[in-house]
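So, who can interpret the following?
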Amino acid sequence: MKTILVPVDFSDTTAPVLAEAQVLAKALGGDLLLLKVAEPEPDFVGFEPGPQTVRVAVAHDYRAEHVRLDELKAQATAGGLAVTALHVQGPIVEKILDLAAEHGAGMIVMGSHGHGALYELLVGSITQGVLKGAKCPVVVVPAAGKK
């Protein structure tokens, strides 16, 4: 195994997911590919981008996410691992699956927020979508207190 894809969302599950991915990468001699998928901008899905203030706020958020992703990369690199970080925009499940295939990921390590059945029914789950579409093993790290 060479590459372990680690989608992150900067929620409370990010730290345990990264820790588990680091353990697996060290044990299996793999590299980490950290991935943050940002939602597509409205003009990508057929809507006008909105007033300038909205575009400035979205750009600010995107830059802040990029900084946080670089911090996670530095943290994992300090642990002695080879780490690549990607920050992309688009449909989350689709991007995770496409980049896993593109980079030849041997495993995906991601978190689960542990929402209830009603939430999953109405909204869906990114983890569930990845589990259904992945061509490699997926390790799901449960949300704190949801083990």
Notes: The longest strand covers residues 31-38. Residues 3-142 form a domain with the Rossmann fold fold (CATH 3.40.50.620). The CA atoms of residues 125 and 147 lie 17 Å apart.
